[in-house]
Amino acid sequence: MRMCPGLRLTWWALVLASLTVLAGMVAAQESPAPAEEAPAPVEEAASSVEETPAPVEETAAPAEAPPAQAGPAPAPDKEAPAAALNRRPLTEEEGRAVALAALAFAEVTYTIGDETFQGVPYRWGGRVSVAEFLDRVAGGDGVEELGVDASGVAVAALRSLSPAVRFLAGPPENPVWWEDATSGVLYEYNVVPVEPSQLRAGDLIFFRGSEGDVGGVAVVTGRSGSRVDFVVASARQGRVIHTFARTDGDYWRSQILGGGRFLIIEPES
Asked: Which helix (H) or strand (E) holds 192?
């Protein structure tokens, strides 16, 4: 049977249409689905409580050696007792009192405007007690005019134990007494050497200066194993701080000259 020309064209059109639909279905099955976008990272909720920062390790120079004290040497004390060379090291109880007095310089807080600060400011050659500092700040004096250096903290702490404390400023064969002292004077004439393993509260540790001499002093507040805690006026941080170093660390070996226990005048019996 012969198809008429119109039916033949219609039949081929249907075949082509079917093939086109079938090819589309196959292509749809073989094509991968569009990749999903990676979800945004989930942000952790920030804690509202700040963690207490860990003490600065010696690798970050927790106790830089403050510069040598500025200004002229203190005037000799003409009224020093004749038997003043009768001295003894501080007792443990006296040492604790000295450590607490030094710690007050690091822990004191004060407010200027809307800001609160901690620690008496560092000032090269500065001499001020914590009480005087607070009074003067409250009275409107600028803090740039106030502060203490390394030996200023040590001398004030020792003076809190004995207001009439005197410092030997030369060889005992020809004694000269000062009412004040530099770090070098404390190191040379006013302490008995103490091994690092024997340091205790109230002892002094001395820093090595740029030329190998005494560059500063700190007051020990305690020791636990190789860790020695102390108070020092830090030029880098611009204030008195409470920090530590380890006696078996590189910082200690390179920066610490040694430790000593202050020799106080023994009253005459």
From this structure: strand 191-194
Q: Cβ(204)–Cβ(260) under 8 Å? A: yes
Instruction: Supply the pTM of this predicted model.
Output: 0.72
Q: What integer is the mean pLDDT of 74-100?
A: 77
* pLDDT for residue 8 is more than 70: no
Cα→Cα distances 266→12, 62, 165, 242, 262, Å: 126, 35, 11, 30, 12
In this prediction, residues 173-178 reach a mean pLDDT of 91
Q: Contact at 8 Å (CB) between 131 and 243?
A: no
pLDDT at 36: 32
DSSP per-residue codes, 218-261: EEEEEEETTEEEEEEEETTTTEEEEEEEETTSHHHHHHEEEEEE
Nearest 5°: the CA angle 186, 191, 194 is: 125
Q: How many whole angstroms separate alpha carbon 143 and alpha carbon 15? A: 98
DSSP class per residue in 10-44: HHHHHHHHHHHHHHHHHHHHHSPPPPPPPPPPPPP
Dihedral over alpha carbons 80, 84, 88, 89 (to 10 degrees): 30
Is 123:151 a contact under the CB 8 Å cutoff? no
CA torsion through residues 194, 198, 201, 107, sign: positive
High-pLDDT (> 70) share of the chain, %: 68
CA 193 to chain centre: 26
Alpha carbons 262 and 136: distance in angstroms, whole number: 30
- Determine the Cα–Cα distance for residues 66 and 232; give it in Å rounded to an integer: 9
